[in-house]
Specification:
- This protein has 357 residues and is of the alpha/beta class.
- 42% of the residues lie in helices and 20% in strands.
- It is globular.
Length: 357
Amino acid sequence: MKVVLIGVGQAGGKVTQTLVEFDRDMGFDAVQGAFAVNTAKADLQSLDIDTMLIGQDRVKGHGVGGDNELGAEIMQSEATAVMDALDSRITTTAEAVVIVAGLGGGTGSGGAPALAREMNRIYDIPIYTVGILPGRDEGSIYQANAGRSLKTVAREADAALLIDNDAWRTSNETVEEGFDNINQQIAQRVGLMFASGEVVDGVAESVVDSSEIINTLRDGGIASLGYASAEAAPDASENINTITSITRKALLTGMSLPDAVDAEAALLVVAGSPERISRKGVERARKWVEEETGSLQVRGGDFPLESDRLAALVLLGGVERSKRVEQFIERAKRAHEETEDVDPLEQFGSEEIDDLF
């Protein structure tokens, strides 16, 4: 799947650069262009990709200090300039634009939904968001920002793929080490998903192409991505149980949004050497995903890669009803009650929800 990436805010810029590096190192050529936007000049200086500083007349290059309303206002006022800078990167080969942002900060949580809204008015290709949720220990302002941003970005983007910072962080890591590890895991998983329609080595027996990803995310809302891998036997017939096992692990313990298994649609991709991939194993695993998610729209296929391991990617679309999302919303509401701002989450559980615009 050919994509153009735009990182918004500090976390968005770092993850975007890591995605670019992973795609380049693997030789996938799925990332057709990349760009980072921020209100903080210092955060852009550490990046090797193209960058753009916005909001200079408002914050003088010092960032918005966690104020996601200000982040949204700045992005709305400068969206035309941002899209002008992006336009040369969005060629006829691009199949989607992916906005990457941390939903807990100010520029990312405010700017990502504002940019998605403006881009959806201009472009016919899907506008997706990879949104990173703050961990439980990241402070009340981050929780409240993310809760408010989540509903807005899920509405304005064609789909919002969520990454919970608590999902892939180990207890013995420092905060910096934890974020670096999460960024690498995001790049591996999301990068493989993008590349799954870009055949690198060999010919897949049941090819996965970009339309499978687009159709899985077609209903919009919140999406989640899971991953697991294991050593594989040289003979495909010996890998039936391996494929079903890594698929279970990807869905039950490896999702970017843990405990989110009820879905409207799903896509299973098994990556590895074609001679090691068992069709019987893939079909068994696909049927299991169908039963576990309750979805009648479960697609599946292969992604040929030269490796002695097999990996399973599970993409879920439409997981808004999950307990994990509900728990996060409750955490965001409680966090906002601890702040002194006007409460934008007062009616979060109803149909009348305040948003960033």
